[in-house]
Amino acid sequence: MTINSYLGNPLLKSLNVPQNYTKEEIEEYIKCRDDPIYFIKTYMTIVNIDEGLIKFELWPFQEDLINVLSNNRFCVVKCPRQSGKSQTSLAFMLHYVLFNEQRNIAILANKGATARELLGRLQFAYEKLPMFIQQGVSEWNKGSMSLENGSRILASSTSSSAIRGYSFNLIFLDEFAFVPQNLAEEFFSSVYPTISSGQTSQVIIVSTPNGMNHFYKMWTNAVEGRSDYTSFSVNWWDVPGRDEEWKRQTIANTSEEQFRQEFETEFLGSAGTLIKPAKIAELVQKSPLSRKDNFDVYEQTIEGHQYFIAVDVAEGRGQDYSTFNVIDITEMPWKQVAKYRSNTISPLLLPNIIYQVATAYNNATVLIESNGPGGEVCNILHYDLEYEHTINESGVQSKLGIKMTKRVKAVGCSNFKDLVENNKLIINDLETISEMSQFIVKGKSWAAEAGSNDDLVMSLVMFSWFATQELFKELNNIDLRNKLYNSEMKQIEEDLTPFGFIEDGVVDTEKYVVEDGEVWQIYN
After folding, report:
1. Given CB 3.0 to 4.6 Å as the disulfide criterion, which of 136, 404, 479, 522 pairs with 148?
2. CATH placement of domain 282-468
3. Residues carrying an active site annotation
4. Domain parsing of the chain, residue ranges
5. What is the pTM assigned to this prediction?
6. Where are the alpha helices (DSSP H) in 19-59?
7. Which CATH code fits 60-268?
8. CA–CA gap between residue 472 and residue 270 (Å, rounded)
């Protein structure tokens, strides 16, 4: 047994082992400390699938990546499959812990086993280092390692509780696009205080695209300068050995769409989306004019314009989201001008928010899904807050809102697809576009893929269903609230069919319904 080794491992230096450096070793140590690329190319060993153990000969784009990681606190990296992105990042982290004291790193991946495998690769490279470069080891296992200089690396899954309570100098997120959307959002809500607690803490996010999810949002914000992240991308042809013939063979063995996403790094939607992936890719998000309390405004109210609000209600327990979209229906194409999204708002408080927004948008017509807690929201908005411009269930005066049935959803999905793909409905919000990219076929219906949400999409599906109803044509072309009191009442289109009621607030005991091309007054 080597007494200077860690737990009998001759490849690892133990704690408090004296090191007698030669002059050449001191010079080499300083050179490695000051030049991470030299250190990696000279001393880091990796396992190549074809050649076995080899020195890590960095390709030009990998050297560029090391320089970007060395000079920027926040980095988001978009790379094709099998381009050495994770290995390059591990090389950077190995240099980081060796030549800096009291540094803590978190290696996080969508699965804990993947994170531990990454740490294992870093540990393997560590064992191949000469002793004069190594630090003494105080902890060494599959989930973590600690060094004599006080630096430590932890490997874990990307979850909201993974690193809560810890303080890290560097957080590395591998294949972040493949972390389920709900977990990605929870994770950043949890770890951002950790990230922002220091002045030099770093975040490295590396991934191949996987739809328009949280990674897409972070990448887009970085590219367009809306965040502090520095973007870095790699092309498939940057990897030696990949040429047009390689591309042709890869597409032949997979598919054009798979190649576009995994190697050309396009942000395509999931397979089987309601909206065509090519159309989703064309959608252009806008930056909100204002963002406050989960409410994003893309266009301010315009006098004389008519607005429609579709509401999807959740329990407010941190899971599904309560959402509503504000749509300008004054003229085609209709436009999403604002949106609300929260998974913590109580159904008892949501009506107040709807009331404020609807009033601000020229007393917008409101349609609420009445399933579950939605019924309570309907009643509070209409009866307690006395908001008159709400849609009632077809033919039932006492029932507010609309129940989401298989028929309503099927018609709504079909029309939503038509509206978006034919540029009749403009979507401005990134979170909505993200949900659309993961709204997929499930059995005989449509829903969010596992780990994602579809609450914003479902409110638009509900709006799209209502847009097929005859009453919507009346709302969209004439103001019924004024029409009821002038002599042009009989000029309404003759082909209208009964749909439902709109409260007008004129006389409490009167209701109006469109039937057989005429507006009828009904007394209680």
Report:
1. 136
2. 3.30.420.240
3. 175
4. 60-268, 282-468, 481-523
5. 0.70
6. 23-34, 36-43
7. 3.40.50.300
8. 32
